[in-house]
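[job 0417] fold request received: Transposase
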Amino acid sequence: MTFETEPTGYEKTILSDLQGAWSCFFNALTTNEPFTNLERVIFHYYEATSWESVRDLNQMKKTLLVIKNVISQSNVTEDVTFWLAEVDRIFNDTIQQYQR
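[job 0417] inference complete; emitting structure tokens
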């Protein structure tokens, strides 16, 4: 019986940057002061980062818009706002790159 060897190198793509930004956004949500609508944002975060959304960036776009709207109606820390802006920026870069 043979075992697959672990790859030693990975190709970094814009999708890995997007995944990292989403992770930092989630970290900001869960480590800063709780705010009204936090549970709603976390629910939509999981929807935006689900396998279905990763495979269909149009679905992620819709969910990101919902998150942005909920956050805009909430009193959140600067850290949460920063990472949401980063997710949005990298998401837009991702869309542009995959349209080519």
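[job 0417] notes: The first helix runs from residue 14 to 31. The helical segments are 14-31, 38-48, 51-55, 57-72, 78-99.
[job 0417] exit 0
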